[in-house]
Known about the structure:
By secondary structure, this protein is an alpha/beta fold. It folds into 2 domains: 11-18 and 270-405, Aspartate Aminotransferase, domain 1 (Alpha-Beta Complex), CATH 3.90.1150; 23-265, Aspartate Aminotransferase, domain 2 (3-Layer(aba) Sandwich), CATH 3.40.640. Helix content is 39%, strand content 15%. It has helices at 11-20, 23-29, 71-83, 95-103, 120-131, 146-152, 175-185, 199-202, 237-250, 256-267, 269-288, 307-313, 329-338, 368-374, 390-405; strands at residues 53-55, 58-59, 88-92, 111-115, 137-141, 157-163, 190-194, 212-216, 230-234, 293-297, 320-325, 343-344, 354-356, 380-384. The strands form 3 sheets. It has a 7-stranded mixed sheet with strand order 3-9-8-7-6-4-5, sandwiched between helices. The chain has a 5-stranded mixed sheet with strand order 10-11-14-13-12, covered by helices on one side. It has a two-stranded antiparallel ribbon with strand order 1-2. Strand 4, helix 5 (120-131) and strand 5 form a beta-alpha-beta unit. The longest helix is centred in the last third of the chain and has 20 residues, at 269-288. The structure holds pyridoxal-5'-phosphate. One of its GO terms (molecular function) is pyridoxal phosphate binding. InterPro entries: Cys/Met-Metab_PyrdxlP-dep_enz, PyrdxlP-dep_Trfase, PyrdxlP-dep_Trfase_major, PyrdxlP-dep_Trfase_small.
Amino acid sequence: MADYSQFTNYPESAYLYKKNKGFATKAIHAGQDPDQVHGSVNVPIHLSTTFAQKAPTDFYSQYEYARGGTPTRHAFEECIAACENGEYAIAFSSGCAAMTCVLHSLPKESHIIVSDDVYGGTNRYMRRFAVEKFNFNVEFVDLTDTEAFKNAFKENTALVWIETPTNPLIKLVDIEALVNITREKKKDTWVLVDNTFASPYLQNPMDLGVDITLHSVSKYIGGHSDVIMGALVFNGKEMKDKLFYSSISFGGCPSTFDCYLAVRGLKTLESRMKIHCRNAYSVAKWLEQHPLIEKVIFPGLESHPQHELAKKQQRGFGGMISFLLKGGKAEAFKFLSSCKLATLAESLGGVETLIEHPASMTHASVPAEVRAKLGITDNFIRLSCGVEDVEDIMADIDQALEKACKKEQ
Length: 409
Ligand SMILES: Cc1ncc(COP(=O)(O)O)c(C=O)c1O
């Protein structure tokens, strides 16, 4: 069998960028030296699914078969690794495929601690597959409660799954505190952070000691709602061998064209994130004093329970806002279908403003009693604030609120 370890990135180059450069420079250049043959400045799209050998197992380069890697995918992996200050990365066909790879790399029947408020698809996979089909012992815990976290540990806890900020309640988890507790409890437990909501620009969990950072590249990294992809970033050859072996065995590799789009997306991540953050801050402040709004959840507001942690842990407050409008399901549905600029759609992190109803859309697969306990009520709205002119975003929300929630005098 071929030695698959050759098929991953060249960490030396990622190291160089990590040590010496700022975020935007890494995002634009890491893993993207001009190509050796023609000097193309942009990474070429390598469509070949297989790579010639001079003699059996004597390869021209580290590539053999495209499920294990292509030069275009490799460029993305080096770049995202550098942006997250990690040594290695593996790209996947989706964020969910990245999640599956991690779960399939654990010892059988492991105990897994998972944030109680996570993306609906993560919740569904953990309950319906990890537990029901693969015999893992999954425990959902409020990770903002460190005592509850300490008490959840077992002999065979193999993975701690943190999402911060969480989806859709935008709760923040103190990554460093949880890493420290984990190391005291059990040295070999992996700590993973799903960093999708923050993006690598706002937060780098590897700097706080986590073992694996996961991204749904489909969100801020792709940035234009035209790529479905995922990524894992991590350190150490042992971890690389384990995760890479799972990834080639279970498939879930990204298309080369998507890797190209993801490389392109990373180049403007910093510029886009700055506008997402600025717009979201203005919209959240404005919504907070709006007479038709009951509550706004945004880490940049002083009313947010982890506002201080947000200032310490993140470089900005992000582009995601959740809010409760005054009314119930009927008002929420009327509001959502009255929005004209904000598009009613799942997903987040694109340049355009997206708005949705978690209880019936992204989190419909979460059992109703769990949603009720978490506070994902029928008047709960999630807004992914785009980079359009902020006045236009506010005007659109305002007219839709008036239509849906204003009582006739
Ligand atoms: C926080 C988070 N993690 C993971 C995923 C899954 O990513 P994908 O849709 O790329 O499979 C999503 C998707 O919405 C998400 O919001």
